[in-house]
Amino acid sequence: xxxxxxxxxxxxxxxxxxxxxxxxxxxxxxxxxxxxxxxxxxxxxxxxxxxxxxxxxxxxxxxxxxxxxxxxxxxxxxxxxxxxxxxxxxxxxxxxxxxxxxxxxxxxxxxxxxxxxxxxxxxxxxxxxxxxxxxxxxxxxxxxxxxxxxxxxxxxxxxxxxxxxxxxxxxxxxxxxxxxxxxxxxxxxxxxxxxxxxxxxxxxxxxxxxxxxxxxxxxxxxxxxxxxxxxxxxxxxxxxxxxxxxxxxxxxxxxxxxxx
Length: 260
Ligand SMILES: Cc1ncc(COP(=O)(O)O)c(C=O)c1O
What we know:
alpha+beta; globular; binds pyridoxal-5'-phosphate
């Protein structure tokens, strides 16, 4: 069965027929956790890492979660899955619902432009991928209102963080750099993969540092590696040589881990 399929508490339905109570605090207060997992030919990439992060998010939120049941839900929905590249979205709510959705991969552009948006991460949510994403979604809208494709989140003290749904990397003098997790950013699975395959180093970056970089790219489960062609008024090579090499290395590793 194609995208548009849902599994709620172990029961498969077409997504448009899936129901949860409107009183669920996952909806009322955004109190819950989620993951988005990319499929390659129907095989989830880094499923164990996503489930470990989901379990950590639930524990951080003091949310009881049967992670084995989440894995079974995913297996159930994948049993119906087409072979095309798709996404699995998993949400767990304060109301106790386990929701798994099979989604079509959104179109991914060849490069993107970034507009800075000032943002202070809530430290209380360190290590938690919570359902409260309104600020992230608003940041993207604010950047788009200014004519950019996506937001680059920067603290009031000018520390570069990440994008609303992706990690941020810069290339300077051939070295690949990314802000450290101590900046209260998400411990992204693709970020860890880029650090592993590209030997990227974790270094604090300021908005002023951005004027000295040669290339930049985003990294996430959905986009893999996405070149940045412009940040505010600064044009960048897109894709630059280093970004192209990192994108190939990441893709190779993903294929190696999802084939056979
Ligand atoms: C804020 C944020 N940073 C980074 C990422 C990328 O994380 P991952 O590589 O685990 O998909 C996401 C993904 O949703 C995110 O929401």
